[in-house]
From TrEMBL, chain A:
Residues spanning the membrane: 12-31, 43-62, 68-86, 98-122, 128-151
Keyword Transmembrane: yes
Lineage top rank: taxon: Bacteria
Protein name: Tripartite tricarboxylate transporter TctB family protein
TrEMBL record, chain B:
Keyword Electron transport: no
Protein name: DUF112 domain-containing protein
PANTHER family cross-referenced by the UniProt entry: TRICARBOXYLIC TRANSPORT PROTEIN (PTHR35342)
Species of origin: Pelagibius litoralis
Annotated TM spans: 18-38, 45-67, 108-131, 143-162, 168-187, 199-222, 259-284, 320-341, 361-381, 388-408, 414-431, 438-457, 469-491
Stored InterPro entries: DUF112_TM
UniProt keyword annotations, A-Z: Membrane, Transmembrane, Transmembrane helix
Domain DUF112: 22-442
Length: 168, 508
């Protein structure tokens, strides 16, 4: 089992358990949805799912052995390191998720602009604000031109889309 | 009309005279291919009214050129920023992106363009010469044979897992499970959908692709100032045309590799329902299995980039064969072409080549000319395109996230797909940080549902008898080839090691 981070001579393997845990949870849920279904719906669940459960159990067994033998801990620093940019990374993830939530109210163009400008300012530590805002404005305008005007994709509408619609 | 060498020369010159349609279509195709979520099929649908009012020959040349260029265009973001524009380019970043990280972006693009061009030219020529024979391939490839073809691609999971077997297999099988979300193929029973209607059709590929590769990468690369190492940046800044020339030279030297991997694409392309993603993964897996240096795959190996790029361009010619010779469209773009041809009163099928040879053969010749013109127009651009990687991650990461989220909305226009892309991005980020290979997950997501579909058809035909998978002579040959491709490489490696050991002992 490969480690992700060394800490005081002990490997931190907590992060490595997330994917197998997700896999196990999802497989059990998947099987529960097909338990009363015809065999054609169950085929994958039992062919693939049973192997996956077995693999995950072996992985958990090996991880447990490492922890019990004192060679590893359940720390997750492998997932979070490097810590000096952790706040920025979490902020960037939050802004990205915020983009998906806010787009319903502000519309495609304005949200794209706010998202790009805010992310660039955050990642750049507030340096070159004019460049960040200009780049965001140009890219949001290009996105509006290509996706909304040219290809007529039905992105959520906000003040800018409604203004352009009223003018045309 | 006599079909001889003079006929083909005339046809070539005639196709060349249509450069004014082909060149703009190439640039349009490159752009739509490079934008995740867009495809040649989408664009042709959007521009269908124009295509229908064009002269039939011009309309078809426009569609063919756009189709070929979009295939090549999808490789550009896959190589430069780890965003495969389409599922057909999903295997391209495996070795293309590591080359970019070393500052060899210009070289990688030149290799990709040259392999795509040679692969496209070769398969078009083969298609022109052997259309009636190739058209029969679809008749021999039944569900049993397709199960084995899928397994060729899926066995790439085992190859990827070689570095950390347990993690690789968990990632691959998780991908297969995720790929089986959606209603089942026979009774439409919803499976693993969490009650979400948007998942009833299965996991949409574009959100999975961009999430696992691009969004996770965007969260990762902010650890550095650039996606390139310091050495890589210096190398790219001081790069000259030599990198492009070197890329062309190295691909030409490996012409045999380009040839056989593109022929894999051609044969898979001829089979209706099979597509560029399968071809690219099968070609990559076979390329690695037969390589003398399999351990270099995934680290920026030239052959690992050549294989998927020549294969997915080989598919292009293959897709048109069942359409033109049998009247069966092998993919979405071919289906739209069929609509245009029927609207214009053109009879597809064997009569097309007897009644309108100029049009029938002309479509393939237009494809041939498109590849030639692409080489001339796109190769010089590789030097400038590769400069994109010099952009600081401060600007690059938000742009990647923004445009991939937008791209994941485009195909179905569901907000849900943007959330799904983000969720796959987080999954990909966790996987990368903890040593799980996202490519293994993706292979499962793409090929899993296809494999299940073919398997169910095979089992239904035989009343659930699993032995049916070994009942066809062609299928058994493919099983044997699959077993050999899995067993031989480790065996050869073991033998090589033993030999080295013997020599070392002898020297000692």
């Amino acid at each position: 089992m490969a480690s992700t981070q060394e800490s005081g001579g002990k490997r931190q393997i907590g992060g490595e358990l997330i994917i197998p845990a997700l896999a196990l949870g999802f497989t059990l849920y998947y099987i529960s949805t097909v338990i009363n279904s015809p065999w054609s719906a169950q085929l994958n669940a039992f062919l693939v799912g049973s192997v996956l459960i077995l693999l995950v159990l072996v992985f958990f067994g090996l991880a447990l052995r490492e922890v019990l033998l004192g060679r590893a801990t359940l720390g997750v620093s492998g997932l979070l390191a490097p810590y000096d940019i952790l706040a920025r990374r979490l902020g960037f993830m939050a802004i990205s998720l915020g983009y998906l939530v806010v787009i319903h109210w502000l519309g495609f163009t304005l949200t794209t602009f706010v998202f790009l400008a805010a992310s660039m300012l955050l990642l750049g530590g507030g340096r070159r604000p004019v460049l960040c805002v200009s780049a965001a404005a140009v890219m949001a305008t290009v996105a509006f031109g290509v996706f909304v005007l040219l290809f007529e994709k039905r992105f959520p509408k906000g003040p800018i889309e409604q203004l352009v619609q009223a003018l045309t | 009309m006599e079909i001889n060498a003079a006929f083909f020369v005339d046809l070539f010159l005639h196709s060349l005279s249509l450069w004014w349609v082909i060149v703009p279509s190439i640039f349009l195709g490159l752009i739509v291919g490079a934008i995740p979520g867009f495809s040649a099929a989408n664009t042709i649908i959007v521009l269908l009214p124009f295509t229908l009012i064009m002269e039939v020959e011009v309309g078809l040349v426009f569609m063919v050129a756009l189709y070929c260029a979009s295939r090549m265009g999808a490789g550009i973001p896959a190589i430069l920023v780890n965003i495969p524009g389409t599922a057909g380019a999903a295997a391209t970043p495996l070795d293309g992106y590591p080359m970019v990280k070393k500052g060899q972006g210009q070289r990688a693009l030149a290799i990709s363009f040259t392999a795509s061009t040679i692969g496209g030219l070769l398969t078009t020529a083969v298609a022109l010469a052997s259309m009636p024979i190739l058209a029969r391939v679809g008749f021999y490839m039944h569900s049993v044979e397709m199960v084995v073809v899928m397994l060729f691609g899926i066995s790439l999971i085992a190859t990827i897992a070689a570095k950390d077997t347990l993690k690789g297999l968990i990632a691959g099988f998780l991908g297969l499970m995720i790929g089986s979300i959606g209603t089942d193929h026979v009774y439409a029973t919803p499976r693993g959908t969490f009650g979400i209607l948007e998942l009833y059709d299965g996991i949409p590929l574009i959100p999975a692709l961009v999430g696992l590769f691009a969004i996770s990468e965007a969260f990762l690369v902010i650890e550095g100032e650039s996606i390139l190492s310091r050495h890589g940046r210096e190398r790219l800044k001081t790069g000259s045309w030599l990198q492009t020339i070197d890329g062309i030279k190295i691909t030409l030297k490996k012409w045999w590799h380009v040839a056989w991997t593109s022929l894999i694409g051609l044969v898979i392309g001829v089979t209706p329902g099979a597509g560029a993603a399968i071809a690219a993964f099968v070609a990559y897996q076979q390329s690695r299995a037969l390589s003398k240096t399999p351990e270099l795959y995934g680290t920026g190996h030239v052959e690992g980039l050549i294989a998927p790029e020549s294969a997915n361009n080989g598919v292009t010619a293959g897709t048109l064969i069942p359409l033109l010779v049998l009247g069966i469209p092998g993919g979405a773009t071919a289906a739209i072409m069929l609509v245009v041809m029927q609207y214009q009163g053109v009879n597809v099928g064997p009569r097309l080549f007897a009644e309108q040879p100029l049009l029938g053969y002309g479509i393939f010749m237009a494809m041939f000319v498109t590849y030639l013109l692409m080489a001339l127009t796109i190769l010089p651009m590789s030097r400038y395109m590769s400069r994109v990687t010099l952009v600081s991650t401060t600007y690059m990461s938000p742009l990647i996230i923004g445009f991939t989220l937008i791209g994941s909305f485009v195909p179905r226009e569901y907000m849900f797909d943007m959330y799904l892309a983000f969720a796959f991005g987080i999954l990909g980020y966790i996987a990368r940080k903890t040593g799980y290979h996202v490519a293994a997950i993706l292979i499962g997501v793409i090929l899993g549902p296809l494999m299940e579909g073919y398997m169910l058809v095979a089992l239904q035909k035989s009343d659930g008898d699993f032995l049916t998978l070994f009942s066809s002579p062609l299928g058994n040959v493919l099983w044997l080839a699959l077993a050999l491709s899995l067993v031989l490489p480790p065996f050869m490696k073991h033998r090589q090691r033993r030999r080295k050991g013997v020599f070392a002992e002898g020297e000692g």
